[in-house]
Design a protein that fits this description.
Structural class: mainly alpha
CATH architecture of the largest domain: Up-down Bundle
Shape: globular
CATH superfamily of the largest domain: MFS general substrate transporter like domains
Number of domains: 2
Order of helices and strands: HHHHHHHHHHHHHHHHH
Number of helices: 17
CATH topology of the largest domain: Growth Hormone, Chain: A
Length: 428
C-alpha cells in the first residue's frame, strides 16, 4: 500500500511563503479570526456575570466549550485526512460564527442563561475540533517544504501580536458597549475567515481506502509506530498540565501574596507575550538542523518563571525568566510543527495531529484538578516548584529518546516517511 500526497510539494518555488497567494489568504483568515478570538474569553466571562452567574456558572460554560474539542478531535482528524481541508475549515469557521452570533443576540436581548451560553460554547468547541486538524495539514499543502518553518513563524507573528493587544481592546469594548458587541465581532471575524478559507480550494488528501474504524486503527498504528511522535505527545502533556496549572492557576495567587498583585502580574504576563513575539522573530531567521531536539529543549524553558516565583525572587528577575519562557515556547511550537509537517505524510497528518492534540488537551483539566487538590495541603510555592520539576523531568526524559534526535530537517527533494519507514510517493 502506498501513501500519497494530495498535491505535489514543489522542490523549487518562491523565495518567501508570502509570495504564494494561497498562503497570504490563509494568514489573512487567521489574523482576522484572531482579532475576535482574543476578545472572546473576556466577553464570555462578562456575559455570564451580566446574567447573574458566578464561578460555578462560568466553570460550566468553560467546561462545555472544552469537552467537545477533546471528544470530537479524533473525528476532526479523520475528516481532515479524507475531505478537502479548505472545506472543513470553511464549515468549522462558519459553525463557530453561527454559535457566537447566536450568543451575541441572546446577550444583547437579555435572554442569555447559563444553559444557552453553555450550548453556544458546546457548538464552538465542536467547530474547533474540526478546524485544528484541518489547519495543521493545510499549511503543508500550501507551502513548499523548504519554507514550512518560515510559514509557521509568519502565522504565529500576527496571532502573538493580537494576543498582546486583544484582551486590552476587548476590555475597552466590553466596558464601553457590553459583552454582546465583542461577541458579535467574534462572529463576524469567524464568518470572514470562513469565506477566505473556502477560496483556498485544497484537494482532499489521497487516503488509503477503508472504513472509519479501520482508518482510526491505522492512524493509531501510525502514531504508535513513530516513537518520536508519541513520546513528544506524552512529554508535551506533562508540560501543558504543569505550565497551565503553575502559571495560569497559581501565578496570580502568588503575585497577590508575594508581589504587588494585579500590577505585577500584568507585567509578568506582558513579559511572557513579548517573549512569544521574540521567539517568533528568532524562528524567522534560525532553521535548526534537529528541529525536534530544539523543540524539546526550548519547551523546558517553561520551568524558569515557575521556579523563580516559587523561590520568590525579586520581580526584576522574574520578568526576564518569564520572557525567556515565552521565547522558548514559541520556538518549541514552530520547530515542532515544522518537524511534524515535514515528517508525517499528507494523508496521515489529520489523524496524527488529532492523537497529539487529544493527549495534550486531556492534560489541561487533569492538571488544574490535581493542582487544586495539592494546594490544599501544600503551599503555593511548593506546588510551583513541583510543576517546574515536572517540566524539567519531562524534558530530560524526552531527550533520552534516540528517535527524537534522528528527526532532522528534510532537504527540499526529500520525502517524508510512512510509519513503516518507507519513503512516501508524491503524486504529480
Amino acid at each position: 500500500m502506498r501513501t500519497a500526497d494530495a498535491s505535489p510539494t514543489p522542490i523549487s518555488g518562491p523565495s518567501s511563503p508570502f509570495r504564494i497567494a494561497a498562503f497570504r489568504r490563509f494568514v489573512s483568515a487567521n489574523l482576522i479570526s484572531a482579532t475576535g478570538s482574543a476578545m472572546a474569553p473576556l466577553a464570555l466571562a462578562y456575559s455570564v456575570i451580566e446574567q447573574g452567574g458566578g464561578a460555578g456558572s462560568l466553570g460550566l460554560v468553560l467546561a462545555t466549550s472544552t469537552v467537545p474539542t477533546i471528544v470530537f478531535l479524533l473525528a476532526g482528524g479523520l475528516f481532515a485526512d479524507r475531505l478537502s481541508r479548505s472545506r472543513l475549515l470553511f464549515v468549522g469557521n462558519l459553525l463557530a460564527a453561527g454559535a457566537q452570533g447566536a450568543l451575541a443576540v441572546t446577550v444583547a436581548t437579555g435572554h442569555a442563561t447559563t444553559v444557552s451560553i453553555a450550548a453556544c460554547g458546546f457548538v464552538s468547541g465542536t467547530a474547533a475540533s474540526f478546524i485544528v486538524p484541518a489547519a495543521q495539514g493545510a499549511v503543508a499543502q500550501i507551502v513548499p517544504r523548504q519554507h514550512l518553518q518560515q510559514a509557521n513563524a509568519l502565522l504565529r507573528l500576527p496571532s502573538n501580536a493580537v494576543k498582546a493587544l486583544g484582551p486590552a481592546v476587548g476590555g475597552v469594548v466590553v466596558a464601553a458597549s457590553g459583552a454582546a458587541w465583542a461577541l458579535a465581532w467574534d462572529a463576524v471575524t469567524f464568518a470572514a475567515a470562513a469565506v477566505l478559507l473556502l477560496g483556498l480550494r485544497l484537494e482532499a488528501p489521497l487516503a488509503a481506502p477503508g472504513g472509519v474504524l479501520s482508518d482510526l486503527r491505522a492512524g493509531w498504528a501510525g502514531f504508535w509506530a513513530r516513537t518520536w511522535l508519541w513520546t513528544y505527545t506524552v512529554a508535551g502533556s506533562v508540560l501543558v498540565a504543569a505550565w497551565l496549572a503553575g502559571f495560569q492557576l497559581l501565578g496570580p495567587l502568588v503575585a497577590a501574596r508575594r508581589y504587588a498583585g494585579a500590577r505585577d502580574w500584568g507585567l509578568i504576563q506582558a513579559a511572557f507575550t513579548c517573549g512569544l513575539l521574540a521567539g517568533t522573530l528568532v524562528c524567522l531567521r534560525w532553521k535548526p538542523y534537529r528541529p525536534l531536539t530544539v523543540a524539546v529543549c526550548a519547551g523546558g524553558a517553561l520551568a524558569l518563571p515557575l521556579a523563580s516565583m516559587a523561590c520568590t525572587l525579586p520581580l526584576p528577575l522574574v520578568l526576564p525568566a518569564t520572557a525567556l519562557a515565552g521565547v522558548g515556547l514559541d520556538i518549541a511550537i514552530v520547530a515542532w510543527t515544522t518537524a511534524f509537517q515535514q515528517r508525517v505524510p499528507q494523508a496521515e497528518q489529520g489523524r496524527m495531529s488529532a492523537y497529539n492534540g487529544v493527549g495534550e488537551r486531556l492534560a489541561i483539566p487533569v492538571g488544574y484538578l490535581v493542582t487544586a487538590l495539592a494546594a490544599r495541603s501544600w503551599s503555593s510555592q511548593a506546588v510551583l516548584l513541583t510543576c517546574a520539576g515536572m517540566i524539567v523531568a519531562a524534558t530530560l526524559l524526552n531527550l533520552c529518546v534516540p528517535d527524537v534526535h534522528r528527526i532532522d530537517r528534510l532537504a527540499p527533494d526529500d520525502q517524508p516517511q510512512a510509519a513503516d519507514g518507507r519513503r512516501t510517493v508524491v503524486q504529480a
